[in-house]
Write a structure and sequence with these properties.
Length: 68
């Protein structure tokens, strides 16, 4: 109840609630940047399940490149 009340007060005063995930995505904008791997490490601290997705994607790329 206290958290909901606090967020409601923030909204009433004009603050737009967001999440760590949204902030990181806004700052990063694209995964094609040279520092994407470093940003991904920070991102996975906020969203640990994303690490598994990254590992899965990397393995799929390895399989795809070995078939060529």
């Amino acid at each position: 109840m206290v958290s909901r009340t606090t967020v409601a007060r923030f909204i009433q005063s004009g603050i737009v609630p967001t999440s760590t995930n949204a902030v990181i995505c806004e700052l990063h904008r694209t995964w094609r940047r040279p520092e994407a791997a470093e940003i991904a490490d920070i991102y996975t601290m906020a969203t640990p399940n994303y690490r598994a997705l990254m590992e899965s994607f990397d393995k799929a790329k390895d399989v795809g490149s070995s078939k060529k």
